[in-house]
Amino acid sequence: MTVALLTAARLRKRHGAHTLFDLRDFTLEEASAYVLTGVNGAGKSTLLRVLAGLVPVEAEDVRFAGAPVTLRPYPRVLRDAIVYVHQHPVMFSTSVPANIAYGLEARGAPRALVRERVEEAMAWAGVTHLRGSDPATLSGGEKQRVALARARVLRPRLLLLDEPTANLDGEAREQVIALIPTLTKAGTSVVMACHDRDLINLADVRRLKLRDGQLEYR
Ligand SMILES: Nc1ncnc2c1ncn2[C@@H]1O[C@H](COP(=O)(O)OP(=O)(O)OP(=O)(O)O)[C@@H](O)[C@H]1O
């Protein structure tokens, strides 16, 4: 049985007189992976940022796990459950473990829990060997995996990835792609804005296409 995680009767985004998108009956299901495609400028990043509460939107009848919520103001229940990962993740110049621990510490998690989750996430993302590296010197693929580990420790119900493989090739790209199914198996829904054929063709990934301001479910 499929369970709706996030639904909205309507999500409309306008810039002045221009309507970027006007989506009816928007639905994301629990523990499901989606790729969000569309031509440059279709609104993919904007939609992810709307769902993350980073840009305002006109919304009607939004529900999260069945309970009514608003997107503006963006409530704590969504802030705790939804994590957005930028295409070019910003690293603090502290250390790799400190970068991964950051969000959990900001939420006031106990030290032992932070340590346990950071270790688990580093192993999951394959970045344990980077423990002592200067975050500023990491490659694009390494940064992306540290950013995924930083998101994973928060145990999000919904993870929004903006072009997670756009700047990667070869093994780095494969490593990031391999992490996606493990997220949904752990109960996290994932929406990836992307143009990457390999992500689009992953097994059990649903396709959403933004075209002319509408969302096509494929
Ligand atoms: N604050 C704003 N005011 C006006 N127009 C904006 C604003 N923010 C974004 N846009 C426009 O909205 C459109 C959608 O941008 P968005 O970045 O969401 O597209 P995208 O589908 O992610 O594109 P790409 O594939 O190139 O990353 C673009 O034409 C952009 O210029």
UniProtKB/TrEMBL annotation:
Gene3D superfamilies, A to Z: P-loop containing nucleotide triphosphate hydrolases (3.40.50.300)
CDD domains recorded: ABC_cobalt_CbiO_domain1
Molecular function terms, GO-annotated: ATP binding
Domain of life: Bacteria
Parts of the chain that traverse the membrane: none
InterPro entries: AAA+_ATPase, ABC_transporter-like_ATP-bd, ABC_transpr_CbiO/EcfA_su, ABC_transpr_LolD-like, P-loop_NTPase
Keywords carried by this UniProt record: ATP-binding, Cell membrane, Membrane, Nucleotide-binding, Transport
SMART domains for this protein: AAA
Domain ABC transporter, first and last residues per copy: 6-218
Protein name: Energy-coupling factor ABC transporter ATP-binding protein
Organism this protein belongs to: [Empedobacter] haloabium
